[in-house]
Design a protein that fits this description.
Elements: E1 2-6, E2 14-18, E3 28-37, H1 40-46, E4 56-57, E5 61-69, E6 81-84, H2 95-98, E7 122-126, E8 130-132, H3 139-142, H4 145-157, E9 165-169, H5 173-184, E10 189-193, H6 199-207, E11 211-213, H7 216-226, E12 232-237, H8 242-251, E13 252-260, H9 273-278, E14 282-285, H10 291-302, E15 312-316, H11 320-328, E16 334-338
Parallel strand pairs: 9-10, 9-12, 10-11, 12-13, 13-14, 15-16
Antiparallel strand pairs: 1-2, 1-4, 3-5, 3-7, 3-16, 5-6, 6-8
The chain binds zinc ion (2 copies).
One zinc ion binds at residues 90-91, 94, 96-97, 105, 107.
Length: 339
């Protein structure tokens, strides 16, 4: 079968190759892949900026149909359309796993970098990581379960409360999903702030009913016009940029919450420490996705309380390089590969 493989260590080294088709071992399933989402992490792997074990098939955002089950796995799963938590290899016995934080286990080897992933015709996964998706959910919405689970896991750390004013910084897939989820969680107002270079994404967001701002000033007036609490209740940052933290601090009310969901790529960034202290800001970092975050995400999708399929642009697996370029150049919001 064909798979997009990171063949060697170093920058680049990605190719569409023939790889052996997987077989399900005990406790595992094999999926016929329907679609695999391209994520910032995949670009970081190609750029040699994220750990991986080559040769490895890329792709950790996987939607598929169960084709085969291994020993001990319920045969009723066969034919079901599923998404999968990426926490393969988590040990189950360390402190983090036992606390329910398997996503942070040091032994974790996710599909797409630790074991073969979903940019292929078939993928083998541990059965306990699967979530069945309701038939009513279009493929292009279901394939967003992983980034949506990251968002929902973040909201476990920094909750959206009914009536909150929420500002999301960054108009990428994570930012737009964070905005849609905040609305579903009962926020009274949600604003997406993006750069001028994100014009296409902001226009699509506005077209789908989200409030958008293109500068810190625009964001400040939007908040000032709506808040009687002295600022936004929650700012979600998906950029990791110093300018975003500065803007978030300026927008937040006292005792506001800042949720950090995005890597900035710099070793250190300057933050307005004293202003954050004066506002008694609560800062939460969320990394990857919790099991309960997956339950929330699949519920939001299956109930159609959020319908994010408009974020997705599909590409054939064979056009993987074009798809990666489209993500890098921000010509699409979310590219997915279909074998
Ligand atoms: Zn991802
Ligand atoms: Zn563990």
């Amino acid at each position: 079968m064909k798979g997009v493989v990171k063949t060697i260590r170093g920058v680049g080294g990605v190719a569409l190759r023939d790889v052996p088709a997987p077989a399900a071992r005990a406790g595992e399933v094999v999926l016929d892949v329907i679609a695999g989402g391209i994520c910032g992490t995949d670009l970081h792997i190609v750029a040699d900026e994220f750990p991986y074990w080559p040769p490895v098939v890329l792709g950790h955002e996987i939607l598929g149909r169960v084709a085969e089950v291994g020993a001990g796995v319920d045969e009723a799963l066969i034919g079901k359309r599923v998404v999968a938590e990426p926490h393969a290899g988590a040990c189950g016995v360390c402190y983090l796993c036992r606390r329910g934080w398997a996503q942070l286990c040091a032994d974790k080897r996710s599909p797409g970098w630790g074991i073969d992933g979903g940019f292929a015709e078939r993928v083998r996964l541990p059965a306990h990581l699967l979530h069945v998706i309701a038939d009513a959910v279009p493929d292009d919405a279901a394939v967003l379960a992983e980034p949506l689970a990251v968002v929902c896991s973040g909201y476990e750390q920094a909750p959206v409360e009914p009536g909150d004013l929420v500002v999301v910084v960054g108009a990428g897939p994570l930012g737009l999903l964070a905005a849609l989820a905040a609305t579903a969680y009962g926020a009274a107002g949600v604003l997406v702030v993006g750069r001028h270079s994100s014009q296409l994404r902001l226009a699509a967001a506005a077209e789908h009913g989200l409030a958008v701002a293109r500068s810190p000033d625009e964001a400040a007036s939007w908040v000032a016009a709506r808040s009687d609490r002295g600022g936004a209740d929650l700012v979600v940052d998906t950029t990791g940029a110093a300018s975003a933290v500065a803007m978030a601090t300026a927008l937040l009310r006292r005792r506001g919450r800042l949720l950090a969901l995005g890597f900035g790529g710099a070793e250190t960034i300057a933050v307005p420490w004293d202003a954050m202290l004066q506002r008694a800001v609560t800062v939460s970092f969320a990394m990857s996705s919790s099991h309960t975050g997956w339950l929330a995400a699949t519920e939001l999708l299956s109930s159609r309380r959020i319908a994010p399929e408009w974020l997705v642009t599909p590409f054939d697996l064979a056009a993987w390089s074009e798809a990666f370029d489209a993500v890098e150049g921000r010509h699409v919001i979310k590219a997915v590969l279909r074998p």
